Amino acid sequence: MQLAKFAAVLAAALTFSGSAQAALLLNSSGSSANTVSDFSTPGAVSFDLDLEHLSPTMLRFQLEEADLLGPLSLNAIVRNLSGAALNGFHFNLQGISFLSAGSVTPTFGALGGVSSGLDYASIAFASPEWAEFHFGNPLLAAGGADWLLDTRGLAAGDTFVISAEVPEPSTFALMLPALCMAGMMAARRRKQG
Q1: Is residue 46 classed as helix, strand or coil in its secondary structure?
Q2: By CB neighbour count within 10 A (0-12 exposed, 13-18 middle, 19+ buried), where does 173 fall?
Q3: How far apart are CA 34 and CA 162, in angstroms?
Q4: C-alpha to C-alpha distances, 32 to 28, 61, 103, 138, nearest whole angstrom
Q5: pLDDT per residue over 155-166, tens digit each?
Q6: Are residues 57 and 36 in contact, defined by beta-carbon separation less than 8 angstroms?
Q7: How many other β-carbons are positioned within 10 Å of the β-carbon of residue 131?
Q8: Is the entire prediction scored with pTM above 0.90?
């Protein structure tokens, strides 16, 4: 008799939990050293991204019915486990767009600026971030705000992709030390000659 009651309670719990699903993380791709932990709830996409390798990571989500009731909030904790400094970071969207910008909070670095459009958010750090930063308000801190995704025109079952990546240094930034060295060598030759 107890087993029958337990089975009935378990079936009811599974039925109710199935009706309140969040955006489903279908898969993530990129370096196997990078780990994604999904904490999404109905109406909110939330994840932690642990970067051991500074290569792009793509997260593919599927919308559920509960995600379409209004804007979908987005927040993430990005942990820098690579040992290298983060001077910037990009989030790019495919299949969905930003409705409004939220907060970005570095842990040890200093925020230089954030630019965003319908399908991207670019973060620049004024001083490098060595530990982690919060995109949106994953810890519900006072004064923080999640980013909002626009679900208008989308349906349950539609998929979207969030790409997270550390921007490549520009060609000029890579060439700058070599140009400085060449200039110093030329000045030295002129001085000797």
Answers
A1: strand
A2: exposed
A3: 15
A4: 10, 19, 28, 24
A5: 999 999 999 999
A6: yes
A7: 13
A8: no
